[in-house]
Task: structure prediction
Amino acid sequence: MLRDAMDQAKLAGATLHNFHGGLQLRHNKRISCELPIERAAPAERFYVPLLQQSGQEAQPIVAAGQHVLKGEAIGCVEHLGSGYLHAPTSGTVSAIGTHPISHPSGFDGRCVVIEPDGLNQWTELHPVDNWQQADPDVLRQAIRSAGIVGLGGAVFPTAHKVDEASRRGIHTLILNGAECEPYISCDEMLMREQPASIILGARILQRAVGARRTVIAIEDQMGAVHQALQHALRESAAAEIDIVKVTTIYPEGGEKQLIQVLTGLEVPSGGRPTDLGLLCQNVATATAVARAVTEGKPLVERIVTVTGSGVRRPRNLLTPIGTPISVLVEQSGGYADDAARLVLGGPMMGYALASDDNPVIKAANCILVLSSDEIRPPQPEMPCIRCGECARVCPAVLQPQQLQWTVRHGLWDETVSAGLADCIECGCCDFVCPSHIPLVEWFRHGKSELRRLEAERLAADSARQRFEAREARLDRLKQDRRRRMEEKKRALGDGQEKQKRIADAIERARSRRQENP
Amino acid sequence: MNDSSIRVTASPHVRSAESTTRIMWSVVYSLAPVVAASIWFFGPSAVLVLLASVAGCLITERLFGSVRSSLADGSAMITGLLLGLTLPPGFPLWMAFLGGAFGMAFGKLIFGGLGQNVFNPALLGRAFLQAAFPVAITTWPSKPESWWTLQGDNLALPLMSPVVDAATEATPLGNLKFGDNPVITPLTDLLFGTTAGSLGETSAVLLLLGGLYLAFRGHLNWHIPVSILVTVYALSGLFYVIGISQFPPLFMLFSGGLMLGAFYMATDMVTSPVTNKGCWLFGIGIGALVVVIRIWGGLPEGVMYAILLMNALVPFINRATQPRKFGSPPRRVAEKKKEGGP
Result:
């Protein structure tokens, strides 16, 4: 069966399919597409969080007072072998201290604080010569040392994904340009302005993982993007790349949904696209790969959409990682009077920040400032009336109303079998719920509870194993001792000889006591 | 940005404008034409009976509901109106009030209020009245001379049986089933409601319009009424053709409480299945039970019991019709794995 699926996956993009549920949302993208991408104004201080991706935070490899150049490694990430964190500009490390880190938890974390020297001077760069002939290993190594992560928002280390893909063997690379969340336009603007670098990135990635073809998926509303990419494609004369327009419906930019749209196949629950011979990468990630390989430049900046009715001049800015959000907002005309919420990411999946001191991180595709008109005032939660609207819009074909019930009541076995792990937290159910039940929040809570229970179970298991091992060891020692005693007893022999030996031993002890009283 | 003006909340940050309260009130509004028609046909009696059953529901909800503001959500109002519409115009008011109170207390609040109940509260109230006052609830007074005259014995004192007027009339269903000389009521009378019957049972056209409005607004799962009506039509057509039953299929569709039941009672979101597949099963079950009760049962009408019986099966239907989750293997494969696996 999997073989059939693999064959079907090879036809990705030939015919388009539907996924279950989804929402047609108001895009609100045009407002941020009017101005071209511009470089962000230089910040007075850069705060580079050591925690930028899944897993643990990076280990700093610079010290306060040290001078660094742009692109120099300042942190080492051990999680999934994912490489390095780099200085976004040249300057002096003023401290490694605690600062807001744009994390969903809202907690502060450790940041490398850099005082720029204003020269913005690159460190020595090591591009890969002639990538067309380079060994795929070398290309993957270049991706690793450039610290590239998925720029669509998931920030999964690209090197790890690419390694796995090349190990398992894939046939098709999918570049995800279906930016389905409302308001966000950084990928759209990138594809419009730098289509050649995307095509280049696609070809490099294709070589790095050994894929035979690439499908670039864009939304059907991106007319200018399609023209630009087509043009770049003709110039590069790469035959094995197709551009496919998919219908705009949220959340089709989700990896699993996009694969279903392109191939009609579902990524198995708990599985990866590589199970179908596919690798999915965001278009911005592809340009980062192109830059890392052909110029040797690590990932130190990204395009960030600054938008929403809460800013006066929405736009896209090419922003060094670590730039405080306040700098971007100021460059976008400042806050409107009715700005009410500051969100990192889109309105459906992004998380609210408490202040604009938070820095731009690798995951930051959008700074969304919503006005009070755009957000609905919080409304009291009402009982679920089982209208079933949540189930109709769920792209994972779950029953959110039953799921929230099992989570709320702590029925963890039922929660697992109802498929909580398959929830992608797209927020569709939450959006439509007429009873204003914060479904996604319950699901996040459920997931973290399940993680905690799993950790507890593992801890209990290992404690039990330790206990059993200790018992076994003590038992073994006891047996050993008994055996030794028996052996000694046997060595003593019996009768007269035994008596004599005992007498000798007593005599020895007595004489020793007389010598040292 | 002024820090005190920022609210940190969980995503999503945008929401649809729909709300449970709005859904409930639009159901109430969609009943307005039916209510108006019942007043037009039955005069002040209709107003009094509806008021009494609504009062029974609202007062009980207010007294025993767990949330003080629960009256505002409109659900008690719906129950009261629907119960009132299933009662005959000459029904004693104290009984209507009691029915509303019973339906609300034992059909809904005892389970934990909105969203928790197993049975449709309005129908449970009516089932109670049917059991307690079988004569009063099946007495259909003849139309009085003047529109202003009260029908039957609306004002019977509490705990007193109503004085049964000699001049009564049979409903189309009762007439055809138990009448001395059974007549099939013409379809036009059934469609526009110029027949004897409960307040809201008579005008099939207005019920259909209200139902269509709700379906259009997305507040009603059309699978349920469609499967009920198709099943009733097909089954009764079959029985009529092979000569088992004397009810023609179109007569079946438009008489009695079928329209009210199919569009307003069976579609109650709380007491109907969540999946579309489940809704088909639910509707087919109701349709079949309606036909069976009407043809072979001891009562002229079977919509109420058909829906209540199927309400009880909803949890099982829900469990049996769970859709396949994204990325999980087809059910057959999964079961095979389970059987063959370790």
Summary: The longest helix of chain B spans residues 44-64. Chain B touches chain A at residues 1, 3, 5-23, 73, 113-116, 218-219, 221, 269-270, 272, 274-275, 322-329 (CB under 8 Å). The radius of gyration of chain B is 22 Å.
